[in-house]
Structures
1.
Amino acid sequence: MRHERRLEVAYRVSRFKLLGAVSATMKQETRNLKRPNETGLGLMGSLTVAAGLCVLAAPPLWAGDMACVIKPSAEISIGTPVEGLIHTVPVERGDWVTKGQVIVTLESSLEEATVALAKAKADAEAVLKSSQLKVGFSSRNLERALDLIKNNSIAQHDVDQAQTEKALAEMSYQEASENKRLAKLELNRTMAALNLRTIRSPINGVVMDRLLSPGELARQTPVMKLAQVDPLRVEVYAPLSLLGKLKTGMKADVRPEGKGQPAYQATVVVVNRVVDSASGTFGVRLEIPNANKAIAAGLACTVDFHLSSAEGP
């Protein structure tokens, strides 16, 4: 941001100096007109010099060699969803990380023990199998009772008791099945709590900074910062003469600072419709593919727009 602001200030200062030069020249030539024999410049020469300076002071009409800055497409501060003591940080500043890679782990012995207990409960089968056996036994007992009541060999009370025992056995089986399902849900909950102790990278990128180390307490503060450098974005402030000419989808050549740097093709993705009246510029954002990581983020650059490659009305 400081670099971009310096570009704006430099542009404003250059315009101010050139306009001042125009004003001084016009005043001098006005005095010379009153003394034509003391000067070699006539009226036509004065106007030619003034017109040339006005052209230089005006905003440029070309779309090339404008100053810009290359930035990461995303900068992310990584935090932890729960408080805890940092156990490991397997990456260092400058390391490349991939999406899903483990970058921080918190101390999780309690959560691991809770998961082990919940897993044992979810895997338990004794209560469920016992209730199944009771249902089978009570069903057979009820069938025998119904056969005996036909011959008046037993009392009706015995039949009622057999029916009640079967109903209770079925309820016990249903309760055991529900407890089994609840145990599995509890296992899922404890595993989710354990997974919160492991932080993974949300992007493919590079570690910008590591803010905490093993043994420190992670609270509501970032642990590290990551930057996504594929693709890169290019920020440029364009003069008002290009407002309406630069459109999304347009191609441009971006050349990073440094001797012998090649030009890379970029695509306009954002054209800001809000103009900065102080500098007479508006913001434009471009995107550069950087799959091979050949371009470093943070570099100053120059951009040359291909005005003929604009798409759309």
2.
Amino acid sequence: MKNFFVSYTGTDLNYATWVAEVLESNNYTVTIQAWDFRPGDNFVSKINEALSECQKLIVILSENYLKSKWCEAEWTSKFTEQMNLKERRIIPIRIEPVDLKGLLSPIVYIDIFDKSENVAKKEILDGIKNDNMRKSGGYPSYFSMEHIEIDIDYYVEESSITYIKTCKSKVLVGGKDRIHNRITWFADEEISLTALTDGIRIEYLDLKDTNLNYNVIFDRLLKRGEEIEFRVKAVLSNNKKHFANFFSTEVITPINDLNIHLNISDISIEKIFTQKLSSSPMNIRTESPKEYLFYSPFHWHITAPELNFEYKIYW
């Protein structure tokens, strides 16, 4: 007893043999006219034998297939078996748009039309299984990334600020190779970015807004559930002295732990303030600032910072 008999019309020979090859390379047994019917064989007898001795019929579904009387005889004989046994006996594989009517129309088909070869293989091998794995793809998170820990180091000099950001993150939505970031700075000052982690690079984006937008691009596609780490350095000029005395981190993606480390070269600074601020005027939950004696470096640890709030440090 063979696993499959591949039913097709002559115009779809290339699809039929390719499907048969995919099945046999994955340890299924197959009967197909192109390989198993030889000159001198009784064609009708061989068809009858193939249909009788196969568990399931693979239909290479096209408009030409639907017009063929020979193909109709093949699938209708297996359809009777399917109805009597109440088990799946016909598996259509659609290779082009078709107008299904009649008894074939309610049968769910495997769709490989307009698919890449690898995707088509996966669709076929998943579709012929008797049982689907009863497992979801995981929680469909609103966010593509969850940050396990972010460390931000600020080094404040008279005419420049060096900013080093280290992210340890968990990928919630895979299939991408980049993470978007932004820095808000002054339009008439300069920003220089450097990737400090092997396997990543920086892509500058021109989004026509007041931020410096950039992507951290990895040398591979990120996988769902994967934990990654990357580090980026930015040197911000302050030649026009627009910058005064504060840094602010807006939380727009879940973060488990946020660590801010402040280094100031000005030894006259004696006090430092931290504050949680609402990013929305509709939210009145802004907290009062907290005051600390300043020693460089100053470390501020925030556990599970709240989404849509800013965490400001100033002096």
3.
Amino acid sequence: MKHSQYPITQPIVTTTARNAAKPIDRLQTSHIGLHLLLLVAGAFVLLPFALMLLASLMPKADILRRTFDVGRLSLDNYAQVFRVAPFGRYYLNSIIVATGTTTLQILVASLAAFAFARLRFPGRDALFVLYLATLMIPFQVTMIPNFILVRLLGWFNTYQALILPSAFSVFSTFLLRQYFMGLPLDYDEAARMDGAPSWRIWAQVILPLSGPVLATLAIFNFQAAWNDFLWPLVITRTPEMRTIPIGLSAFQGQYSTEWHLLMAGSVVALLPVLVLYIIGQNWFVRGITLSGMGGR
């Protein structure tokens, strides 16, 4: 048997290759550590919601005794929530108010942002700065004037009083303006050359390109309107006009709290916001990323 005249050589691992592999290993280790840290942080964030869901299935006696029995878990608390209080009416009111407020806020804010970002008129930037300065005024300062105005208009204890005062949002206008300023002006100029007026540019050019930021604002505004407690408490009088946050307070008395009903009601109140976020989460992430684009 003859051997090959060329000897078989072993691969040579140079010192440079070894040194190059070390940063990669350190990078992988840091990624693993970062993911573990995020998992722990995520567990801490989800823990209160898990406890709320668990308490909503437990009898009140078990909650007070801090005991857990799988055999005593049931959905009776959810049915009792709708029997003890007109929770269905609260739910309907919250949906009407949150949907109406979100729709009007996005409509008004997009029109204002379009004017501040795409139109040219004297004093535009100064007016925007003045408008932005109203963010420093807390709601408690304007609540009494708004209440007096609503009473004078005869809107007390109505949907108009719950929706219209919240239809104007400085934050929404600011966020949309920053996004609109990142869009090229060539779109506007091309549309104007075709004879399109400003309102048509806003409706058919700018808004279709602003889906991510509009979805982000929709989630933010819907959640804020859904969780609002102080203004509905001040401006409504009858249970027929109450919203869910006020309805949940009915389970808290001066000397005791119906914890099982409060937790069940809280889970039910959480569902619309959770579903809305799940549906729009991709656009939500894109909107958060793109709304900070540099202006001109």
